[in-house]
Amino acid sequence: MADARYFEPLGVDDLACAAGLSRAHFSREFRRAFGESPHAYVLTRRLERAAALLRSTDRRVADICFSVGLRSVGSFTTSFTRVYGMSPTAYRAAFPPAARQAQIPTCVLRVFGRPQHRTFREDNGSGRA
Amino acid sequence: MIKIANAQLWVHDQDEALAFYTEKVGMEVRADVTVPELGNFRWLTVAPPGQPDFSIVLMAIPGPPVMDAETGEEVRNLMGKGFAGTIFLTTDDVHASYEELKGRGVDFSEQPEERPYGIDSAFRDPSGNNIRLTQVREMASV
After folding, report:
1. Is B40 or A50 the better-scoring residue by pLDDT?
2. What is the band of A127 on the pLDDT scale with cuts at 50, 70, 90?
3. What is the residue range of A56's domain?
4. Does the residue A123 lie in any domain?
5. Which of A117, B55, B71, B106 has the smallest C-beta neighbourhood within 10 Å, fewest atoms?
6. Could you tell me the pLDDT band of residue B96, with boundaries at 50, 70 and 90?
7. What residues of A are in the B interface, CB distance below 8 Å?
8. Against a cut of 0.90, is the pTM above it?
9. Which residue of B has its CA nearest to A7?
10. Of residues A3, A102, A129, nearest to B31 (C-beta)
11. Residue A100 has pLDDT above 70, yes or no
């Protein structure tokens, strides 16, 4: 659940409830099984997702923060910087631009890579896609 | 060694498809990049959380000159009839997944039914693509 629904405003109470345990009992058992608190686990999961989105999308940092289920850009930036050693923007800049990973079909490349042919008054200028 | 990396689905509207696959089916966005130099070509992929090495490309039907208008219309027609593409999803509990997706507003065309290979159900995405959701039967090792 923590892995599949991290993008929802999921709290420790929700997780404990889903597991059918009290909050305190759930936290204790979770920590024993996974070595960290449920809160830390969900935050790590969200930050990993955010890092992936910074590498593989061109979405804005604020949008990424909200899409992984965090509600404050300020605390997102702080947590991210603590874990990754650099701000979300710097992290993104350290990787090749996401557009380079896009597997753009050859037919699209061919069309847009073709030299644009310009004519003089032979068409009304609407010929280009 | 050859592996499957991505498979493509045509979609009418990438935003609509993205909302459907993430908010209703429960997938996550893997890549979302728009390239202004290529006529705002948008590379958009989604996949289930926990399956890192495969994703579905939600591809907008291109207009001319990449695809001529007539072909585009044929593709839309086939999608409308449900013959353009199918995604086969599996789940370990089809009844639970069925209820979960139905609760999020997915309109199932086939309710979970027993088949020789497992319990199978089906729905369609907003573009008309078929999606099967199957709990595959554990085959007893002989």
Report:
1. A50
2. very low
3. 12-113
4. no
5. A117
6. very high
7. 3-7, 49, 52-53, 56-59, 67, 98-99, 101-104, 107-109, 111-112, 129
8. no
9. B28
10. A102
11. yes
Domain assignment present for residue A3? The answer is no
Q: Complex ipTM, two decimals? A: 0.73
Check residue B42 and give its pLDDT: 92
Instruction: Please report how many Cα atoms fall inside a 13 Å half-sphere around the Cα of residue B70, on the Cβ side.
Output: 0
Binary contact (A108, B38; C-beta < 8 A) = yes
CATH assignment at residue A83 = 1.10.10.60
User: Which band of pLDDT confidence, cut at 50, 70 and 90, is reported for residue A129?
Assistant: very low
Taken in order of first residue, the domains within chain B and their CATH numbers are 6-136 (3.10.180.10)
Q: Kindly determine whether residue A107 and residue B29, on different chains, have CB atoms separated by under 8 Å.
A: no
- Nearest by CB to B34, from A4, A58, A107: name it: A58
Sheet of B41-47, strands arranged across:
B6-11, B55-60, B41-47, B28-35
Taking contacts as CB-CB distances below 8 angstroms, the residues of chain A near B26 are 4-5
- Side chain identity, residue A58: D
